Amino acid sequence: MVKKNACVFISGSGTNLKALLKSSREYNFPININYVISSSKKAKGLEYAKLYKIPFSILNLNKIMSLESALKELNQKNISLICLAGYMKVLNKNFINKFKKKIINIHPSLLPKYKGLNTFERALKDNEKLTGCTVHYVNKKLDSGKIILKKNVFIEKNDSEETLKAKIQVKEYRAYSESVINIFR
């Protein structure tokens, strides 16, 4: 199987990057992660890039020079898919246009509910019984692209933001890999 080249964008702990890296080591997984972009030089997820010897850059994609630099790198590496994995920056429209239908994101709610930040807090405040995660294509509107896959999580009475986040993250790790497989089927 010829794998497609992929880049993962991170901002924090990199747990979804770690899950994607684990899946990418499987023979029949359709992508090979060969580049990581972080919005922060302090992102703990960069440790996974170093561990797996994956080249990485720290870029602010809202600055023209950084955008041009990133586009050059992504084109040189023949990137077929960009996975936003806890990337906490909004991509500018020019960047999205250059990679139309090649950027996916994972969001910790059942979209279209709870777009944006503080999803766990809002779901608990609204006494939701069900939440989860959604993998979707990125478009110019925040958390509004075509949905690829959703995974549900039941909210228990004793759940806190922390316990809910932990339950959803377990689902995210599977959902992201399943979504990548679905895209290249």
Describe this structure in words.
The chain has helices at 15-24, 46-51, 64-76, 93-98, 119-125, 161-183, and strands at residues 4-10, 31-38, 56-58, 79-84, 103-107, 130-137, 147-154. The protein has 185 residues and is an alpha/beta fold. It has a 7-stranded mixed β-sheet with strand order 3-2-1-4-5-6-7, sandwiched between helices. Helix 4 links the parallel strand 4 and strand 5 (103-107). Helix 1 packs parallel to helix 6 (161-183). The chain is globular.
Tell me the strand order in the biggest sheet: 3-2-1-4-5-6-7
By CATH reckoning, the class would read: Alpha Beta
Low-confidence stretches: none
Gyration radius from CA atoms, angstroms: 16 Å
Q: Helical residue percent?
A: 25-40%
Query: Could you give the distance between the termini?
Result: 12 Å
The CATH superfamily is known as Formyl transferase, N-terminal domain
β content, as a range?
A: 15-25%
Tell me which CATH architecture applies here: 3-Layer(aba) Sandwich
Annotation field: number of helices: 6
Mean pLDDT: 93
